[in-house]
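User: Run a structure prediction on this.
Assistant: Running it now.
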Amino acid sequence: MENTPKRKQRNKPGVVLFTAVAVMLMLSILLTATVSYVSVNRTKTNDNYKSKQAYLTASSTLESFINQIQTDTAPTNDPTAKAQQKKAIENLKKLASANSGKGTTTNVSYNGGNGKSDNIGTTTITVAQEGTSVANIVVTCETTYLGKTEQVAAHISTQSVTKPADYTNTIELVGNGNASYDNINVIGDMAGINNTTGKVYRFINDTQIYGSYLMYGSLEVTTQPKIYLKPSLVDETKGSTVTISENLTVSNEFKVWSTMARADGYNYINIGQKISTSNHFNIGDSGFEIDLFCSEANIGGNSITQYGNFYVYKGAGAYQGNATFGADSQNIYGSLYVEGDLNVTKALNVTGSIYVTGTITGKDNITCPNIKEGVVLSKAGRDARPQIPVSSDEYIYYPEDFFMSSNTDITTISGQYKAFYNGSNTKTFNTFASDPSNVNYTLTEDIDLQGNNVLTPVTSKYTLRIDSSCTWANDLNFNTYGNGPRILIDVSDTSGDILIKLNKDLSLGSEWSPVIVVRNRSTIDSSTGDRKYNCYFVSDSGSSISLDGIDSVTGKSKHSGSTTTNYNFHTLRVYDYDTYVRMYSADTLKNAKGDPGTPQSSFVLNPTSVDVAGSYRPSNSGIIFLFGEGTTFQVTNNSFIQGSFYSPEAIINIATQGLGGLNVTDSAGGKMTVQCCAVGVIIANSFGNDNTAFYIYTKPSTTSVMQNAKGGKDDSAFGYTLDRYDHY
């Protein structure tokens, strides 16, 4: 139970979190209960009655106290109330930590309506630590009534819970630059979240998106892209949408289809301003309708075919809800709503109804069973236009905060990062190569390969093993570590988080072609199901980073002093171990060197949120790439990376055809074979790709520092969990 305050804290000594329990409501409850018990217990022993009355008074008082905490920490989004919420929990901790953790005891009196004390026993409340940590508190209420004493307690775990970041996009662009996508294929959602007006995005060649698309700016379709509105990979019960805040211009064939039947909340295209077509535009299919919303429409060229409703509503400025239909072939298998004027210059077939607020020109060109002119549009229910958010949920903290902040509510890895620069960690890959126990390393582990609880011994071999944080520098012997060395990074409770710092301007040609396999056997967090520790690949951003606090206007962290660095890898493979040992055969795994090649035909990757028979669904990704401002990361030549990038001020270029022959399933069990570049989440200032390649969604680990990117200490929920009540 997470709570935030909305009430002012009292300032009486010893009762900072609660009013005296002497309120009329409390008195009413107690006195009513007393009469009831007197009536019921006439035939019982006097001692039994006394004990029950003492218990009733103690438990009711304790419940009132807990309810007061709930009131003082009630949910709120108000910044002032959040500060009070934090203060309430801090006061509770202060009461508990007093007297070396024995806590604070307060006498409670019950005042009647005449201001006199009612004789329903004497009661004390004690707030104390439970154990050695003030995060765990026990509130004990003890009542003595006519010589009989009863004691009840509430066990509380206090919390300072950082608002978790929510990652739903496979590729997300944070910068305000334009972008062109060449043959990009995205399984999952894609977004451009910087709400800077005038940006233009372009789809080039065979671009395909299997999910939702959100962007602030305009989209120009110059080739033949396709968007498939699939079930959400985050929530399979929901579908997908297309949202473009400004204009959509279609100068080549553009198809938007759906694999789900239309429902409110998804299966729609929402264009904030104008849609213009000069070629083929195909929307939806029979039984899989997709509605289209815009503020002005100019339909021309070859054809428009839509299964669903077409809405043209007034928008801001010059967009008056006018529509012109002049394509050679025009079929809407649904209804047409125009809030301005409708001009039809070529044959238009509408199977539903046409509703126009203004005037209709070219009625003779319309085939429709029901045409209404001069009507007021309801804009309710299905006809309500989806809202384009003013801005998306933006990031507050950046990799620089994770690298340098001393605030543990923001980062858990700054100690390891700083160690690279203060001289306490000078280890490189070559350090491990000088230890024979880490060279030509063989690992055998029992693994449930088929998901049927049958363990199979799996042996995999590696040229080199890394089991702690170090720098990846170009200092390995090429004869031993060139030509596709397989390097194991072994994360455990002993190692903690492992940081691999990419040495400044590290550049490795295709003759190196490293294969990195990250094995994580740290404890599984019971609340999230993710491993406690993670593997981070971090940029060499230097030690001169200055954290300048939170900007009062944007609410974002400010920093300066990051070192500019460029990375180039001509063929790089990064795998999660549990995927790697399922993806490849025993014969491939026994090689400590060389390109692993095409995955087994029996391996099927499942990126959805549900289990699909015969497929493997990876856990949330514990491989995280953190690149600071001014970093450029470029990988080419059939590279493949299974991990998530949080690089909102960096450039990520994965210009490659990726890993070939990877089978991927959807939630319905459908399968396709793809060339895949990355499995994870890519968040970057700008992103570049080349050639046909797939990028597949997998959520980053909830235990990684990425969870703090949209939150942190100043945006925490301060509350508590009521673990249990006890009666002694």
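The two ends are 25 Å apart (CA to CA).
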